[in-house]
Amino acid sequence: MVVEPSKLTSLTGKSRSLSERVIKWFFFSCALLSVITTIGIVFVLIVDAAEFFSKVSIIEFFTSTRWSPTIKPAEYGVLPLISGTLLVTFWSAVIALPLGVASAIYLSEYASERVRAIVKPALEILAGIPTVVYGYFALVYITPLLSKIFPSISAFNALSASIVIGIMILPMVSSMSEDAMRAVPNTLREAGYGLGATKFHVSTTIVFPAALSGIMASFILAISRAIGETMAVTIAAGKYARVVNPFNVGDALLKPIETMTAAMVEIGMSDVTGDSVAYKSLFAVGLTLFVMTFLMNVLSQYIKSKYREVYQ
Prior knowledge:
Elements: H1 5-53, H2 58-63, E1 67-68, E2 75-76, H3 79-110, H4 113-124, H5 131-149, H6 158-182, H7 186-194, H8 199-210, H9 212-227, H10 231-237, H11 249-253, H12 260-269, H13 277-306
Helix pairs in contact: 1-13, 3-6, 3-9, 5-6, 5-10, 6-9, 6-10, 7-8, 9-13, 12-13
């Protein structure tokens, strides 16, 4: 039996069209599933947090300086948790951002392709290490080392937590910044060299400003990652909720603190009942943390779109 070429083409076209529709709806289902999951998580946070705020004043929650949900009399002031979270985030950023940018400049402008092919994957391995390993590394190695410099340092302290979080977010800053710098056209570099500029000046005054939107986006995403870190700060920083004094660096960094994520772990592992106010406070803290990281990501997208350079 001989099939006419026109009919064969028609059958092939229909089969291809059907397979393309199946693939299209498969990918659409994957995207829709992620959206539904996100909406479901946010919905659960809002519902349970609203139940918590129906029993505890939202003003008390955001203005009280004491946090003890499982010890009577229970107090639900989130300020100590926010201050501890921001303290660790700030000092980890102080460590990670300059080192990450310096690493990105080296990989983009100075390293050969062979060196870059080795150094960049080795640096990104840091992002694959489990966070609990970072926590125990801080507790077992970093804190004893710091005790030789600061004899009054506590076994659990914010400084060790800041150091390991800085190491943890370093690959994110370095990798994203390096990608942004390599996206800068070589014509800009050649123009700088043509004017007699050195490699250092080309890197810092031409390439860096041209890639600024991507670099700033990497900063904000890395900071968001630091804000939401859980196990490393839980192990390294301790569980002592207190409002830290940012002007007293020694008191703030050398003593234990409690972050928002550590408080959520503590409540989740305690023996509180599922319908208690203490348990519902977990969702109030989680919603606060979600809003903080969400705003950071929105800011990242705004900066990226506003200062993005488009080259032809």
